[in-house]
UniProtKB/TrEMBL annotation:
GO cellular component: cytoplasm
Alphabetic keyword roster: WD repeat
Organism: Angiostrongylus cantonensis
Lineage of source species: Eukaryota, Metazoa, Ecdysozoa, Nematoda, Chromadorea
WD repeats: 1-45, 1005-1038
Compositionally biased intervals (Pro residues): 718-742
Protein name: WD_REPEATS_REGION domain-containing protein
Record keyword ATP-binding present: no
Chain segments carrying region Disordered: 718-752
Length: 1100
């Protein structure tokens, strides 16, 4: 387990139980980690200024039915610090009133029928006794002080021990009273291998290995790893040997991966022969050899990008002779050699606009070199040295030429007076202010250059703390995001050398994907599928037991190391692989399923001709093979494990947190796996799962612990009522006192505010998934309501530190609101849901250029774009599941806006929430017209109100309604008159609503007693015809103006004629029933189009 950068000083379990699988480690840099032994993962970590030397857990009875555990720590600080072992938070301190000092050692005394005590001895030999009573009432503001203290004649106490058999004795062990012999003949072991350094160039897939004899080996990484780990043909991997160094190779450096301004074909090597050699990574040719240093090369650095043109071509090399050089790798010259340092170099910083390089030594002094002239400017020591180094970070990330680039002129002059003297003041005053700026030494990321920052799909690193011949191979989760979805399938077999660079990059990604699947596939579980993988998919079976690792949330690493007893791969793959760790199973299944689905989704480009060497049928067989591979790991894997009870199932809480992963492929894999695991649990298992996670729903928790705070935004009504009057206070009644909340107590190892917050997020997603997929099992109304309110609160809550505006938790809530809306609807106010989703989906229009430009095909979306995409999908699910409820909510918002707009003033302008996302509203209506045709007819009048409100009526001056919104032409009960700019909608209740776009008014006509089947305007707009199929008549309405055209026009019934009744018709293959239509043939006559091609004319 690798999680510390410094020496580990203390280790302790989190409790005294033998079944405990968690422990805590602390290092001398103040870093603490909480580890899980079974999965080898780091659950939590913190960094502080406290250095712990010894830790011990103490369990006590905090109440009648509860026991709590605390961690007592001593170290390089006064007295004893008491922490919560579950979240590493400091609870309180055991402090001293008399001579506070570092505690050397302590012991907790437990005696029958007596108070438990803590006895500690300080560095100065002072013994202190604390009575451990009322610990649940202690916090950082109220420490526990000692009962008594006494000075002893002891120094350097190493251990204190108490034995309950003889309560009058205390055993102490001191460094001068106990001596150990370390006279064993210990020899220093030499490295068995000759590998001294390595470098993996991810952009080209090449692995560089430096050896003790000065040789550099250049290989293709995937090929080398496959030969070492997989059963491959006996052919050795193609390797190129680079001769040039005469001593141990100490450093390999590829500048292009640090900044794109460097040549991608160049890499550097440094060795113990004091030389720096520049190589061509493609041809393996040695380009130049620098021999300017007098010691082994320690490391390479690059100057910032905003230095001068000469220095921007240089690489900084630091050597063991305390020298620093700037090597121009384009012109093959040494631009600067700083070799007058009396102590080792610890840090190099830059002031690029001042043309300075600052070199800090181990003794704290700073040497300032002028890069342009290669002269030493000055030497700064003491506090001034720290201030000069700190000044290099003042302008990190600032653009040149802005107001933030430089310090004020007065500050520049004061710095010049302090460090350079009076002679520098005049030059500073004459200089342009931006030129005396301090800039960052960090190169710009790919985002600053207009690209997308995607990590390499694979990395190979030396294992820290081990033999340098041992390496770790890490596969990134975004490997599947880097595979283009429109990849030409036959590039695996037919290379076009005119596009060699592009195809070699694709080949690298596909080779890494095949290597990953070869290592992670569940071999020996399905022999038929193994044969498909070997023959069709190009995978290879591992030839020995594999040793996997896991990376925790904060970057801590745990790796399984080889053991004394080695198992064959067949035994390992069937009896050990899937029975060891739940976390590894989760990670491996997500990687296999997402990568296999990505390879299965690779399709032939439509604009390219299919190569005849790989026919279409064979391409489909490849896709079928990837599909079978994904199905084995997603669905069938538990059935192949024997015994089935030994299967280490994926962790449901980890899958829940991946429900809305930023990578779409991993998101889909996590969702499929979680639903599979919930189905495999069965009704009884899901019921136990619901019961265990329901207490963590935020509405059921104490508001002090809830991630939503004391008040839910979703519970705020649309029109908040006024507060009731305050009753008068009587003189005899005391003022009300707010209750003091009880401190949080630990239960079942899940205490700590951070853990409770994580559990809340997991509970919301998990119960939301259960409710969406197995809604009937949330049989308690309070449980369903709490889940629904939690999802809604995540949608409408204001952004905060706990709930960022576009976090994965919010996206998960948005997605689950749509998936399970049928079950959430009785407990929610649908208008809040719809408006919240429309507001997010509307960001697509406002941010289309900034966040949605296609930079890399298949790259993960930004958080804003992902939230918009999820909100659009959720709206589609709600519209499909409850179209009438959605349309009613939209119509109510239109009516509310119209009512408010009639009473608005100049100072208070009313803005419609639907207008901000009008295109999304129209998209929903268009989808409903395609999928829910009959439901739209049922709600035609509300649909008409929403359409008139959201359509851009200015477009109707030049275009027809069919051109502006084509789906409306499917409905014969909708008509538009271009000459008078009127739109008529016929409703199910027999009412016809005519909207006048010029006057922004609407007329309601009671046209029929039964549903209106069709409406039509005459060409001049004077007449409107309505047809009722059930009451079998056609009505003609005429628009009448008032005297002199003043006032509003009115619709008057001028004629009513009998018409054929509409006969029941069976729907077509699309589920649409033929409906009669009316077509005006002239200004006085129209034709009624009936089924089976029948027509009938009517005239006024």
């Amino acid at each position: 387990m690798i999680g510390h950068d410094a020496a580990i000083t203390a280790i302790s379990s989190i409790c005294n139980l033998s079944s405990s699988t968690r422990f805590i480690s602390a290092s001398c840099d103040g870093h603490m980690c909480l580890w899980e032994l079974e999965d080898g993962r780091c659950i939590d970590s913190i960094s502080s200024t406290l250095v712990h030397r010894f830790m011990q857990t103490y369990t006590y009875k905090s109440s009648r039915h509860t026991r709590s555990t605390r961690l007592f720590c001593v170290g390089d600080y006064s007295d004893i610090v008491v922490m919560d072992p579950n979240d590493l938070a400091v609870v309180f301190n055991l402090s001293s009133r008399v001579e506070p000092d570092w505690i050397c050692s302590y012991d907790i005394v437990r005696r029958t029928n007596k108070l438990e005590q803590c006895i500690g001895i300080s560095m100065a030999g002072m013994i202190k006794i604390w009575s451990l009573v009322e610990l649940e009432k202690k916090d950082l503001a109220t420490p526990l002080y000692e009962d008594e203290s006494k000075r002893l004649g002891l120094r350097d106490v190493r251990s204190v021990s108490f034995n309950a058999v003889n309560e009058r004795l205390l055993l102490t062990v001191c460094s001068d009273a106990f001596h150990a012999s370390f006279s064993l003949n210990c020899r220093q072991f030499q490295d068995s291998g000759d590998v001294t350094c390595s470098l993996f160039v991810s952009s080209q897939g090449k692995l560089l290995i430096g050896r003790t004899d000065g040789l550099i080996v250049l290989t293709y990484a995937c090929e080398t790893l496959s030969c070492h780990l997989l059963e491959m043909p006996l052919d050795k991997p193609a390797a190129r040997k680079l001769y040039g160094h005469k001593g141990r190779v100490s450093n390999l450096f590829y500048p292009h991966e640090h900044h794109p301004r460097f040549d991608p074909q160049v890499f550097l090597s440094g060795a113990d022969d004091f030389a720096v050699i520049i190589w061509n990574i493609v041809t393996g040719v040695r380009l130049y050899r620098f021999s300017v240093h007098g010691g082994p090369i320690l490391r390479f650095l690059i100057p910032p990008s905003n230095t001068s043109k000469l220095i921007s071509k240089c690489i900084c090399a630091v050597a063991a002779d305390h020298s620093v050089s700037l090597l121009n790798i384009r012109d093959m010259k040494c631009a600067l050699l700083a070799s007058q340092h009396p102590h080792p170099v610890s840090l190099v910083k830059w002031r690029p606009l001042d043309d300075f390089m600052l070199v800090k030594l181990d003794n704290g002094s700073v040497y300032v070199w002028e890069m342009g002239t290669a002269n030493m400017d000055r030497v700064v020591t003491g506090v001034a040295a720290e201030e000069v180094l700190t000044a290099c970070d003042e302008q990190i990330g600032k653009e040149e030429g802005t107001d933030h680039t430089t310090a004020s002129q007065a500050v520049v002059i004061m710095r010049a007076l302090r460090y350079r003297g009076i002679d520098m003041v005049s030059s500073n005053c004459r200089a342009n202010t931006p030129e005396s700026n301090t800039r960052s030494d960090s190169p710009p990321t790919t985002n600053e250059l207009g690209g997308v920052a995607l990590g390499p799909p694979m990395s190979i690193n030396q294992m820290p703390g081990c033999d340098q011949g041992t390496h770790l191979v890490q596969f990134e989760y975004f490997l599947d995001a880097l595979l283009p979805k429109d990849l030409f399938f036959t590039v695996l077999y037919n290379f076009d050398f005119s596009r060699f660079n592009h195809l070699s990059e694709l080949k690298l990604y596909l080779d890494i994907a095949r290597l990953l699947l070869s290592l992670l596939h569940g071999w020996n579980l399905d022999r038929d599928l193994d044969a498909v993988c070997l023959k069709k998919l190009g995978l290879n079976m591992p030839k020995q037991q594999l040793y996997f690792g896991n990376i925790s949330r904060h970057g801590q690493l745990s790796v399984t190391l080889p053991q004394r007893i080695q198992h064959s791969f067949d035994h390992y793959s069937t009896c050990i692989r899937w029975q060891t760790s739940h976390s590894l199973t989760t990670t491996h299944l997500l990687a296999v399923i997402s990568t296999a689905n990505t390879l299965m989704g690779i399709r032939n480009s439509p604009n390219k001709k299919l190569v005849t060497d790989v026919p279409y049928i064979e391409a489909q067989q490849y896709k079928q093979g990837w599909s079978l591979l994904a199905a084995l790991h997603c669905v069938l894997l538990p059935d192949h494990i024997r015994p089935r009870s030994s299967y280490a199932a994926p962790r449901i809480e980890l899958l829940s947190r991946r429900w809305q992963d930023s990578c779409v492929e991993i998101r889909e894999a996590a969702q499929a796996l979680l639903i599979r695991e919930l189905s495999r649990l069965g009704p009884a298992g899901r019921r136990r799962l619901i019961e265990s996670w329901t207490p963590f729903l935020p509405p059921l928790l104490d508001p002090a612990l809830s991630i939503f705070g004391a008040r839910l935004q979703s519970s705020v009504p649309t029109l908040p009522p006024s507060a009731p009057p305050i009753p008068p206070r009587q003189r005899t009644s005391p003022p009300p006192l707010s209750p003091v909340p009880e401190p949080a107590t630990g239960e079942d190892g899940e205490s700590g505010i951070q853990q409770v917050r994580r559990n809340q997020a997991t509970a919301i997603i998990l119960l939301g998934v259960v409710g969406s997929e197995f809604g009937e099992e949330l049989n308690r109304a309070d449980m369903t309501r709490a889940t629904a309110l939690s999802l809604l609160e995540l949608l409408v809550a204001a952004p905060s530190a706990l709930l960022p505006v576009h976090s994965p938790l919010r996206r998960a809530a948005i997605d689950l609101l749509g998936r399970g809306f049928v079950y959430w609807e009785p407990h929610l106010e649908i208008s809040k849901v719809v408006l919240g989703l429309l507001d997010l989906a509307g960001n697509t229009e406002k941010s289309s250029f900034t966040y949605f430009r296609p930079i890399v095909i298949g790259a993960p979306l930004s958080s804003i774009a992902d939230a918009c995409r999820t909100a659009r999908h959720s709206l589609t699910l709600i519209a499909t599941a409850r179209p009438t409820a959605l349309l009613s909510a939209l119509s109510m918002e239109v009516a509310r806006y119209n009512a408010a707009a009639q009473h608005q003033t100049i100072q208070h302008t009313v803005v419609s929430p639907l207008l901000k996302s009008r295109s999304e509203v129209l998209r929903i209506i268009e989808e409903l017209a395609e999928k829910r045709y009959n439901d739209v007819i049922e709600m035609m009048l509300p649909v008409g109100d929403v359409l008139v409100h959201c359509l851009d009526t200015s477009l109707l001056k030049q275009k027809t309604l069919a051109d502006v919104f084509p789906p409306i032409t499917k409905f014969p009960m909708v008509a538009y008159c271009a000459s008078t700019r009127r739109i008529a909608f016929g409703g199910k209740n027999g009412t016809c609503v005519v909207h006048e776009l010029r006057a922004a008014k609407a007329h309601s006509l009671q046209a029929h007693q039964t549903p209106v089947t069709a409406v039509a305007f005459s060409e001049d707009g004077k007449y409107l015809a309505t047809y009722g199929g059930e009451d079998a008549k056609i009505n003609f309405w005429q628009a009448c103006q008032t005297f002199l055209g003043i006032g509003q026009s009115q619709m008057k019934l001028v004629k009513s004629q009998p018409a054929p009744a509409m006969q029941p018709m069976s729907p077509d293959e699309n589920g649409i029933v033929f409906r009669p239509k009316m077509v005006w043939i002239n200004s006085k006559a129209l034709t009624l189009m009936l089924p089976e091609g029948r027509e009938q004319r009517f005239s006024i």
